[in-house]
Task: structure prediction
Amino acid sequence: MEAMETKQRSTRRSVIGQVVSDKMDKTIVVRTEFKVAHPRYGKFVRKYSTYKAHDERNEAAVGDRVEIMETRPLSKTKCWRLMRKIDPTQGTKRS
Result:
């Protein structure tokens, strides 16, 4: 008999952002910030993306920093899930 082949899952995208809404049941809205250079003037401008993520235990609250990971579509607009809340004492310190 041949050994059963195990399929490796491809690496999934994960992003870190801040929770801006937790009003829906088992769903949070996470906002990520990034900077892009203006095409003509070269000044860096802040831009934002928002993602709806699945929060099974309703543990994230507004203002929390969280890590979310891409997953299969869970609804029309939700294809991310909450991985972990990031402790505010961890991470990089802004100066």
Summary: The domain at 21-81 is CATH 2.40.50.140 (OB fold (Dihydrolipoamide Acetyltransferase, E2P)).
